[in-house]
Amino acid sequence: MRIATWNVNSAKQRLPRLLPWLEERRPDVVCLQETKLSDAAFFDLFMGPLTQLGYEVAHHGQGGFNGVALLSRVGLVDVEHNFPGQPDYLGATESRAISATCAGVRIHSLYVPNGRDVASDHYAYKLEWLDALAEAVAAGPADVALCGDMNVAPADADVFDPAAYVGHTHVTGPERARIAAFGLVDVVRARWPEPERVFSYWDYRAGMFHQDLGMRIDLVLASQPVADRVAAAWVDRAARKGKLPSDHAPVIVDLDEAPDGDIGPVVPPPSNPRRGARTRLPQSRD
DNA sequence: ATGGTTGGCTACCAA
C-alpha cells in the first residue's frame, strides 16, 4: 500500500499538477493539506476526476485558508473531522485535521498551525494543538500514521542551516519535544539517517528551491507496527520542480502487506510476483 | 531591494 502526503498550497491552483501526479505515482491513500477550498468547491472541482481514478474522497475545508483531504482506493471508513480536544483559534475551529481508517490503518491528514513567531499567540496555539493531538492519538487505534505538514523540523539536520533559524519557529525545543512526544517513528528519517539532507519544503522566495535551501517539515509519523511494514519512504522532489508548483513536495511511503496475525496459516501467494514488493528509491540528487 | 514569490481575495495578510 502506498501512502502519500502533500501540502498542495491551494488545490484549485494545483489541479493541473495534482491529477497527472496521481496517475504517475499511483498512491493508494493520499493526504492533502492547504486545499484552501470549501467542501463544496473541492467536490465540484475534484469529485469527477478523483472518482475516475478510483478514489473515495473526504474533505474538511473552510475556504480561503487551511483545508485538508483524504483520498483512498483501499477503503475510507469512520471519517472524522478535527480531533477530540482540538483547540480553537480566535474563537473558531480551523479545518486542519481529518482522519479515516484505510486498509486497517488510522490515517490522519494534518496541517499543524505555523506558529508564525515564538512570541505570538499562534505559537502557543501550535503547542496546545500538538498536545491535544498527542492525547487524541494515544486514545486511538494502535495502527496509526500521522501524515502532513507538521510545521516542525524535528532536528537540525532537517533545516538547510540551523544558524538561519535561531529564534524562529519550527525548530524550537518545545516544538521538537511535541513531535518526539508522539512516540512514533519518523519513517523518512529512519530510511535516510543523518547526516542525509532530505527537505520537503522550500520557500518560494529568493530561489530557495534552486539552491536547495529547504526544510523537512512534512512528515509521516507511524506507530511501530506500521513502521515495521515500511518498504520505502522518500520525498518526491520532482513534484516541486517546473511551472506553478506547491512550495512543498509530497512524501511517499510504501507499506508491505499487513501480517495476517493469528487468523490461521498464511496461504502462500501464487507464482506471480507479490504486489507491494519493495520499490526502488527514485529520489534524484540534482 | 533589507523575503527577492505565491495564493487568497481585492487591501492586505499568511506562509
From TrEMBL:
<dbReference type="GO" id="GO:0046872">
    <property type="term" value="F:metal ion binding"/>
</dbReference>
<dbReference type="GO" id="GO:0003677">
    <property type="term" value="F:DNA binding"/>
</dbReference>
<feature type="binding site">
    <location>
        <position position="7"/>
    </location>
    <ligand>
        <name>Mg(2+)</name>
    </ligand>
</feature>
<feature type="site" description="Interaction with DNA substrate">
    <location>
        <position position="248"/>
    </location>
</feature>
<keyword id="KW-0378">Hydrolase</keyword>
<feature type="active site" description="Proton acceptor">
    <location>
        <position position="248"/>
    </location>
</feature>
<feature type="binding site">
    <location>
        <position position="34"/>
    </location>
    <ligand>
        <name>Mg(2+)</name>
    </ligand>
</feature>
<keyword id="KW-0479">Metal-binding</keyword>
<feature type="binding site">
    <location>
        <position position="149"/>
    </location>
    <ligand>
        <name>Mg(2+)</name>
    </ligand>
</feature>
<comment type="similarity">
    <text>Belongs to the DNA repair enzymes AP/ExoA family.</text>
</comment>
<keyword id="KW-0464">Manganese</keyword>
<protein>
    <submittedName>
        <fullName>Exodeoxyribonuclease III</fullName>
    </submittedName>
</protein>
<feature type="active site">
    <location>
        <position position="111"/>
    </location>
</feature>
<dbReference type="InterPro" id="IPR005135">
    <property type="entry name" value="Endo/exonuclease/phosphatase"/>
</dbReference>
<feature type="site" description="Important for catalytic activity">
    <location>
        <position position="218"/>
    </location>
</feature>
<dbReference type="InterPro" id="IPR036691">
    <property type="entry name" value="Endo/exonu/phosph_ase_sf"/>
</dbReference>
<feature type="site" description="Transition state stabilizer">
    <location>
        <position position="151"/>
    </location>
</feature>
<dbReference type="InterPro" id="IPR020847">
    <property type="entry name" value="AP_endonuclease_F1_BS"/>
</dbReference>
<feature type="active site" description="Proton donor/acceptor">
    <location>
        <position position="149"/>
    </location>
</feature>
<dbReference type="InterPro" id="IPR004808">
    <property type="entry name" value="AP_endonuc_1"/>
</dbReference>
<dbReference type="GO" id="GO:0006281">
    <property type="term" value="P:DNA repair"/>
</dbReference>
<dbReference type="Pfam" id="PF03372">
    <property type="entry name" value="Exo_endo_phos"/>
</dbReference>
<dbReference type="GO" id="GO:0004519">
    <property type="term" value="F:endonuclease activity"/>
</dbReference>
<keyword id="KW-0460">Magnesium</keyword>
<dbReference type="InterPro" id="IPR037493">
    <property type="entry name" value="ExoIII-like"/>
</dbReference>
<feature type="binding site">
    <location>
        <position position="247"/>
    </location>
    <ligand>
        <name>Mg(2+)</name>
    </ligand>
</feature>
<feature type="binding site">
    <location>
        <position position="248"/>
    </location>
    <ligand>
        <name>Mg(2+)</name>
    </ligand>
</feature>
<dbReference type="GO" id="GO:0008311">
    <property type="term" value="F:double-stranded DNA 3'-5' DNA exonuclease activity"/>
</dbReference>
<feature type="binding site">
    <location>
        <position position="151"/>
    </location>
    <ligand>
        <name>Mg(2+)</name>
    </ligand>
</feature>
